[in-house]
Write a structure and sequence with these properties.
mainly alpha; Ubiquitin-like (UB roll); Receptor-associated Protein; 16 helices; flat
Length: 406
């Protein structure tokens, strides 16, 4: 946002020169007028006054801020507000020390809008990176006068949600990486190693056993159709990536992942853990349960689970308890449903939901550990078996020749 220099005079006739950030001269005059400042002269920024960092952000060169930067910003803002520092001063302090250029610009924009008279919620809701959940909690905190404590809870929520997301992601990423490495190794054997053995066998004119012949045929196939295979894999990957971005494709993929062996329960419990923790945070902030459920559903990654929880929200809107529709969801653990029922009947639903979220997080951690222990040796055995099969098939004719077998 450009900075406009202006000249004004105090009541005693003293000349004052200052600057203000705005989108245009017209906007700059409006802002100054709201601040009861009568401008004698206003000058647009020169080329030398342009902020190169902001230019890089506007051009999209600078990477957008992520969850880690948002968590740090939220935690620091809560500390400053709790210490009694006014919002504008908080934003000025955070702006000066922020290293991420994208977030730095956003903090400055929020500060300007707050100075113009907007609430922190209104200013944040117009900026990228602050989702509906975040802004709703800020709004509730401002309305109740407990913004500092709400921001603390929000920072804790972001940290735990990010931790849960990373655990699920690591469990899904690790086997994929191992499989890709294994495929590359097998591909390398077929393209570079097996042909060396084939040339040796051809020189000896020795009859090869069927096992060796199978490996030689596979190697020849790889050599002749390598480019075609790579093109096919790339095409399939692009098609699949675009397909799961469509509404129907995302729905089918989410249903498949929920039913997938080993990983299905991890997906379900990860999403349910995120849902219960988000709902607990919203209810603690004083957000009505109907609005809380809507925001929680919007934050879910899995469309099938979101669809099932939409039925829960509809039932609550009709006057039913949250426990009754939850009990109809087959994959929602009965013990957890009973815990929520107790929390609802005692008026401590938010506290009980925190405990439920902790239970889901512990179960996810246990599932991740078990999956890692189970998948790692399984993949190693399969890959080792394939590589061992190839090597044995290649050395078998040599051993047979050395042993005098015709």
């Amino acid at each position: 946002m450009p900075k406009f220099k202006y000249v004004t005079f105090t009541n005693d006739g003293k000349r004052v020169e200052d600057a203000i950030q705005a989108d245009s001269i017209k906007d700059a005059r409006k802002i100054l007028r709201r601040q009861n400042i009568r401008v004698a002269k206003i000058t647009p920024p020169s080329v030398f006054d342009i902020d190169l960092n902001e230019m890089m952000v506007d051009a999209g060169i600078v990477k957008a801020f992520g969850r880690a930067e948002l968590m740090r910003f939220t935690r620091q803002l809560s500390i400053l507000i709790n210490a009694g520092v006014p919002i504008l001063e908080c934003m000025e302090i955070l702006h000066k020390q922020e290293q991420n250029l994208h977030l730095k610009k956003i903090i400055k924009t929020i500060s300007i809008q707050v100075e113009e008279g907007k609430s922190l919620f209104e200013a944040m809701s117009q900026q990228p990176g602050f989702d509906k959940l975040y802004c709703s909690l800020v709004k509730a905190g401002e309305a109740a006068g407990i913004l500092d404590s709400i921001l603390v809870k929000l920072a804790e929520f972001l940290e735990k949600a990010e931790k849960l997301k990373k655990q699920v992601k690591s469990a899904l990423t690790y086997p994929v990486i191992i499989i890709i490495v294994g495929i590359v190794v097998v591909f390398g054997l077929m393209i570079f190693v097996v042909p060396q053995f084939v040339s040796i066998l051809k020189e000896t004119n020795q009859q090869v056993p069927w096992v060796t012949q199978v490996v030689m045929d596979v190697s020849a196939f790889f050599q002749n159709y390598t480019l075609l295979l790579i093109a096919g894999l790339v095409s399939v990957s692009i098609f699949f990536s675009n397909y799961i971005k469509t509404k129907q494709g995302k729905k089918n993929w989410d249903k498949f992942t929920m039913k997938a062996p080993l990983f299905g329960m991890l997906i379900i419990k990860g999403n349910l853990g995120s849902f219960t923790r988000t709902l607990a945070t919203m209810l603690t902030a004083g957000v009505p349960i109907i609005d809380s459920l809507e925001i929680c559903i919007d934050t879910l990654d899995n469309t099938q689970i979101a669809k099932d929880l939409m039925k829960v929200r509809k039932a609550v809107m009709e006057g039913k308890s949250i426990t009754e529709p939850l009990s109809r969801i087959t994959y929602f653990p009965p013990l957890v449903t009973q815990m929520i029922k107790v929390g609802e009947s005692t008026g401590n639903l938010d506290t009980m939901l925190v405990k439920v979220a902790d239970v889901f997080q512990e179960e996810v951690e246990e599932l991740v550990g078990n999956l890692t222990k189970m998948i790692e040796p399984l993949i190693l055995v399969v890959l080792g078996g394939i590589i061992g099969f190839v090597l044995i098939a290649m050395y078998l004719p040599i051993f047979m020749s050395a042993g005098g077998v015709e």
